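Worked example

This section walks through a single chain of length 291. The input is the sequence exactly as stored; nothing has been trimmed or padded.
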Amino acid sequence: MTPPACENPVNAGGSRLHTAYNPAIRIAVIDNDSGFVTVLAKRAEVAGWHLRQSSGAVPPRDLVAMKLNALLVDPALLGEEAWTYLERTASLMPELGLVVCTGRSTVAQRVRGLRLGVDDWMTKPCHPEEAMARIEAVCRRLKGGRKEAETSPLKAGELEVRPDRFQAFIGGQPLDLTRREFELLYLLAEERGQVLEREQIYQRVWGYAMAHGDRSVDVFVRKLRQKLEKRSPSWSYIHTHFGIGYRFEPEPAGIVEEDLRPAPEQSEQPRASEPADASSSQIVHNSFTAG
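Given that input, the structure is written out below as tokens.
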């Protein structure tokens, strides 16, 4: 008996391939490979995805405004800024599925990208169906990780944050927090020990880029501090890093005196991240090449 011919795994099943895709996936593609992008866009449309294409770098603040699930990028288009862009995007948008699809690359480049925050790395030529499957898998993993994290209470000092209830407790008694105050507290507590820039906080809590001169983050931090200090006076939870942002770390009250007023030289001082960026730019490749 002659065995049946092997089907092309890409064409096998026709439209059934799309039934597993999440129709809510919103993706931006930074790539100038017109053939690849055109086919990918058509298949994404059939799958119910929302795809936006760009032939150049999209500022991270604009990516935030798009409310994306994933970003597919060819770093070769970004030249010398490729590594900085990938790192900045991954840092500002940890819930974004960041996928690289580029030409030939070295092991060192792939390892570096993954350690900077890239979730997956594909080599061209890549079939659009494989690209979609990988993007979907990344989104699925990130979504699963968020669900698991959202069910775990965070405890710090006398404070307990319960994301499953959208509430925080001190001594078993709930704090009277608005939805925005809770989201701010949860973000800070989840990133315990990390200094978060004001712009980063605004993007992750408010969901869009912070306008120049907007003091909403400072105002909400002040309100949140007042409520925490009233109910838990023996602990200090939120610490100011002048000219940068805030850090969450429970410490006995009175060790460090905090003040929300900006330092007089704040507008003239470089951001704390600039020296690091400058030094890192000295060790990256002059450009992200295919070789």
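What to look for: The chain has a mean pLDDT of 79.
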